[in-house]
Specification:
By secondary structure, the protein is α+β, with helices and mostly antiparallel strands. The protein has helices at about 15-20, 70-80; strands at about 1-10, 30-35, 40-45, 50-55, 55-65, 90-95. The mean pLDDT is about 90.
Length: about 110
């Protein structure tokens, strides 16, 4: 089992969710976050004063998947989140040692 953590642009969240649903991934946790990478923020004008916005709004998606679904899920996220512009985001994959569904007590892939 793997945990996919994807940091994407906020307006791409629905596209990614739909792409994951199409391949059978049903559970996604989304968190609104702020950060920067190569974009390094930008400057904005507010009431005549210029200021730097260092952290840009992003959405962090966390998706637990079985090993056999991993590549399909990654490809779906990349395809749905890609705009071709800087700041499209990143995907991190980590190994899950154990998953437990609290309601039923199911463990492992049955809990995903």
């Amino acid at each position: 089992m793997k945990l996919i953590t994807a940091i994407i642009k906020p307006f791409k969240m629905d596209d990614v969710r739909e792409a994951l649903s199409e391949i059978g991934v049903s559970g996604v946790t989304a968190t609104e976050v702020k950060g920067f990478g190569r974009q390094k923020g930008h400057t904005e004008l507010y009431r005549g004063a210029e200021y730097v916005v260092d952290f840009l709004p992003k959405v962090k998606l966390e998706i637990a998947v079985a090993d056999d679904v991993l590549e399909k899920a990654i490809n779906a996220i990349v395809k749905a989140a890609n705009t071709g512009k800087i700041g499209d985001g990143k995907i991190f994959v980590t190994t899950l040692e154990q998953v437990i569904r609290i309601r039923t007590g199911e463990t492992g892939e049955d809990a995903i």
